[in-house]
Structure formats: structure tokens, C-alpha cells
Specification:
The protein is elongated. By secondary structure, the chain is mainly β. It is built from one helix and nine strands. Strand 2 and strand 3 form a beta hairpin. Strands 1, 2, 3, 4, 5, 6, 7, 8 and 9 form a nine-stranded antiparallel β-sheet that branches.
Length: about 150
């Protein structure tokens, strides 16, 4: 009898907790791509947005995101060894990043990638990410948009 009563009470508590707190999660997983005359880039984002509705209390809001930006040279990879000065930047609605390589014997593919993770703002499907690449007095500018 006590076991049955305990099981019934536990079930009741779970139902009350589920009814008192409702969580809705939205995913914002997008791949932004684009290219200029010499360079191309890809920005991959995996983001979640949670709304936690507590009955009778102010709702909570949480976000998390992971993103990777990768820049690629469209020409022959051996041309990268000739580059002496190099910098790039990218900027969307939620922020961006940049990198300057000052003492460069050659730009290596692994150096053209950046990652970030955390909470806060993230890119939406209609966002545009502006990319600027400068090397040895040359400049390539282009935009990244969601691949559909």
C-alpha cells in the first residue's frame, strides 16, 4: 500500500512540474556561403534559443551557439606561399572576427579558420555576413548568405 501511494505521489509531482514549466526550443542551424574574385568563405552556425515559461513567473530565455568561419583561396595552393602580408575580417549582425598574419612565410589553410562558442547573439537566416580579405596590397570583398 505504501509503495503504491509513493508511486502515485511521484507521478502527481511530475505532472505538476511539467504543467508548471513549459520549454520551447528553436534551432538556428545555418550555413552561409559566398565568394569574391580570389577568395571564398563559409560560416557554419549551430544555435539554439530556449524560452522557459514558468507559470506565474517571468519567463527565462537562454541562447547558445557554436560557429566556424573558414576562408579558402580559389587559386593554386602554391600561390599562398608567396603572400607576405595578410589579414581578413568578417562581420554579421551578431558580431564577427578578424585575423592579421604579420610575419608570414606563407598562409596556411589551418590559419584561415576560426571558431567561437558561447551564449548571446547569433545570426538569423536572413543575415548577411560581410567579408574583407587583404593581402600584399590587394583586396577582395564579398558577402555570405544562407545556402538554400
Amino acid at each position: 500500500m505504501i509503495k503504491r501511494l509513493s508511486a502515485l505521489m511521484l507521478s502527481g509531482i511530475i505532472i505538476v512540474l511539467l504543467a508548471a514549466c513549459n520549454t520551447t526550443t528553436y534551432k538556428h542551424n545555418y550555413t552561409f556561403t559566398g565568394e569574391g574574385k580570389v577568395w571564398s568563405a563559409e560560416y557554419v552556425q549551430k544555435a539554439t534559443e530556449k524560452f522557459i515559461d514558468k507559470k506565474g513567473e517571468r519567463p527565462d530565455y537562454e541562447t547558445s551557439q557554436q560557429s566556424t568561419f573558414e576562408l579558402k583561396y580559389k587559386g593554386e595552393q602554391t600561390d599562398l606561399d608567396k603572400i607576405n602580408s595578410f589579414k581578413y575580417s568578417f562581420k554579421g549582425t551578431s558580431g564577427g572576427g578578424s585575423k592579421t598574419l604579420e610575419d608570414v612565410e606563407g598562409v596556411r589553410k589551418s590559419e584561415l579558420k576560426s571558431k567561437r562558442a558561447g551564449s548571446g547573439a547569433f545570426e538569423h537566416e536572413d543575415s548577411i555576413i560581410k567579408v574583407v580579405v587583404e593581402w600584399d596590397g590587394q583586396k577582395d570583398e564579398f558577402e555570405l548568405k544562407v545556402r538554400k
